[in-house]
Each structure stands twice: as C-alpha cells, then as structure tokens.
Amino acid sequence: MQALEQALSDRGIPPGIVRADRTSRAYHQVDRRQTLYMTLIWDVSRTGARGGVRLHWDEETGWAYAKLGLSPNDVLLTAPVTPLHRVFASPDDVAHVAESLVRRWRTPDGEYGAEWDRAPEVRTTCEAFRNYRVC
Fold this sequence. Notes:
3 helices, globular, alpha+beta
C-alpha cells in the first residue's frame, strides 16, 4: 500500500480516500475465510472528468475500477482493470492505470503482465494480517 501511495503521489494524483481491511467471515459463505482488500477513491474535485474514480483491489480477484458520479455513492460503471493481468501488479503499473482513469476517465492502452518483484513479501504480509487476532 505504501509503495502504491508513493507511486500515485509521484504522479501528482494522491487519492482522497485510502482504505485497506479484510472482509468479514460472513462475506465468504462456504469456508468463512477472510480476504484482504484495498480501496482508493478520487472524488470529482481530484479528477479531470465529470465524476470520481474508485480503484479497488482484492487479493483473490485483483484490480477493478468504478466511475463515480458527483457523489462517491453514485456508481456509473464498474469493471475489472483488464490491462493489469496480475493480482499483485507493480505499483508503477497500477499508478499508470490510475493516472489514466483520474486524468482522462479511461483505462490506458496496453497491457501490464508483470508481477511485482515484492509480491511474495506481500503475500506473506497478507497471511499474517489475516491471521492477526486482537486479544
């Protein structure tokens, strides 16, 4: 998350809202496991478009985006970020896609198939976070 926030700041597009957490056990009806997710939101005041943008990451499905209306609750379109072919895409690749969405309200041309070189470390951290219990 820190690497992505840095990559976004380096491009001059820090999100207004950043949230990372794990799903509740009730989210997965069958095996009751928890998965991690991250959501980044740029409201209309931070974009060069007619609405906001939400970028969402889930450790199982990877990246998706939503085009938002004037309110962050007004979802106009939701779709996977198809140019990012990896769940653990590099922060620079994610930032490039985010920049296109924030500045032009569209995904960029091209594809990004490389997995981030720190993906194994992130997987280990995800597992530790998922297993953390407050006493």
